[in-house]
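Quick start: read one record
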Amino acid sequence: MSRLRLLVPALLLAVAACDDSTGPDGGLTAVQTTQVGATMQDEVENDVDAMIIEAAVTPSFEPAPGMAQVVAPCVAPSNTTDTDGDGIYDDATIVFTTPACTRTNRRGGTVAITGTLRIQDPTPQAGLAFTNTLTGLTFAFTGGGVAARNYTVSRTGTRSIAIAGSGLTFASDLSITRTFNVGAQATVEKVWNVSYTPAAGQVLAAGQPLPSGTFSATGTVDWTRGAEQFSFAVTTQTPLAYDATCDAAQRITAGEVRALGTFNGRAGYLRMRWTACGVEPSVVFIRT
């Protein structure tokens, strides 16, 4: 069995919304800002977690910061063959079930994981590259008795990691359904790339936690919910600083991501700005 570590997935609290409604000027309403922003935050933070195979295999819970642990997935993979010994299965499928894959989350609630994750070593050749195929991989979060924080997110599609110099690139092509405590579920199509560069003096190593570094995301997101049909161009205004020593579920300490588009007849962008370890990002809609 390879050395595995457990990371908290991106299970998030309600985020700050724009304090006005659409009105005659158009743009996102306060509810849309909150719910679209929560979805976007979830995708950003989930990608950060999923860039190391240990988090992909057991995508839900974490050890103390900076510590690797020898653990078993909550359910056994179909095949543990690892020809090159790099900690990445040659070709294995994990079918997550509850209650085995249910845990208490550091954001104050409980997460239950169901669905299927296939892990493949693309060569196989020793290294950090791998491919995931997700089929209805679903996280259901219950916020410790706070109904406003409950949601589910289900992902189907592919994610792949490749080496890029001293860092990594991460490509996602996912169909996502997400429920909220208020309103109907949304369907989200996500196609974007994330680049990661380790901080000075930090080195990537198989079987070890992701070291501190910076992330940038670019791509597209399409959001559909009833009459709501929004298309975003995702850009990184300021690279996201990831702090591996942060003792919190939310480990991005700085940076800004924007989702640009036309919403309810008005051009603008959703701005997500991270500021500190353990602090949820501010999310606002800005008209242009």
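Residues 1-24, 60-71 have pLDDT under 50 and may be disordered.
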